[in-house]
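Q: ATPase AAA, please. Structure only.
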Amino acid sequence: MQDDFSGAIDGAKDARDLLELATAEDSVGDLLRRGLDWLTRVVRFDLATVFLLKEGRLVSVAARGPLANAKVRQHSLQLSEFPSLRQALETRRAKAFTEEDHAHGDGDPFDGVLDLPPGHSCMVVPLCAGERCYGVLSLDRAECETYPQPVVDLVEVYGQMLATAIQSAEQRATFERLHRQDHEHAKLLEAQLGGDSEGILETSKSPVMRDLARRARQVAETDTPVLITGETGTGKERLARAIHRWSARADQPFVTLNCAAIPAGLLESELFGHVKGAFTGATKDRAGRFQMAHGGTLLLDEVGELPFDLQAKLLRALQEKTFEPVGSDKTVRADVRILAATHVDLQQAIAQKRFREDLYYRLSVFPLRLPPLRERREDLPQLCAFLLEEQARRTGRRGMRVTPEGLVRLEAYEWPGNLRELANVLERATILTRGTELGPESFDVPTRGAAGVTALPEEPAPAVGGQKLTPVLTLAAVQREHIMRVLSLTRGRVYGANGAAALLGLKPSTLQSRMKKLGIARLEQFVVDEA
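A: Structure for ATPase AAA:
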């Protein structure tokens, strides 16, 4: 047995490599088979068997050595029938069985499976890590000699290392399973959020939209950056999701970052992540959107609002596909397809030194402009049906439809808030309508006059030389009237989900600025007295 001990000492130098198997192998089964191969460097045996606990039974899952056969690999034991094995698990101590143990103990675990001589060398090693015991490792030799205690102690440590590796492998498998579930859940949410955006694009009655869909499909097949421009509420994120689903990256993450919605001081961390201690409140490492989107698509929404000093770091990440998390000097590589969206005139922002010209050219390799709703009125019937169905999935209010007369009313409006405003108008109409049909009376939107502008209450027309002049409405007057109507509807509330800014598809700060410019008085005048 001295040879056993010498081999054990030499093999202990390699035993640390066992822990690396937990991160290198694909499954617990592979890990156990490789682990038993490593065990030959630690101790001599004719049979090494790993039994894992499954509902009160010890089930053989791996076996090595000259005595390993099909019957051994299919063997299982009822734990309650073997007190010595149960004791090894309870005490977490390895035990070498003596001839007396064989004679007066609870029997040989391999009775009926192997023809081993009475008093043969046998050792049982518990496989425990943390608060959990995974099973036992048994070692058997055909020779009748007890394993010496130094060897037992060394194999016990080896068993702890093997159990730790099993624990790591199972945790990794659990993480991967949860990751797959999260990925499938994210894809489901994307489908619910985006709806059948691809179908809406490709079946549009607008020639401009059909051409846009054709070009979007072409660029989706590449990794070329795309710059999506258009007014607020035209559906830029929907188009980005469609491009992602048309691409070869469709099964990978689609991650968005609204550059206008996050304080400037936190944007770098949101983009690139940070390490623990990088700043006050950074209590742990956190991945940024680039890392989250690895292998997939990252949409930089409202990219025109990105702070100027951060634009250089974004440019480097786009060019080199590498970056450093905040507070770290370690370079991280990410394979990400970039889509950018903005309603800002980036050429004007470049002239005003608010946007880097080199970043603009990097992002706008393939520009796509989404037309406003007023340029594609022929799509209103299809859009209404689509948005009502999407709304029904959220609210359960199904079967709603816009009547032909209701569509005429909607077509007579300019839609400054585009699709977002249309969705809000439809949802508001659904709430206020008892039946399933939305007629013209369901929609509180102004209509256009013959000249194609919003019709306001008639006032006496001035006369020059006895001739009555047709009143001319300015764009400012039209905007002022529309904002005042919406403010009356919301009782003067600008902020919130049902505030005027949301209904108009504008930022609250933008709406307040526009009200000031148009000379709209204080909000209190719109508040309805509920007393």
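A: Brief note, in case it's useful. The chain is about 45% helix and 15% strand.
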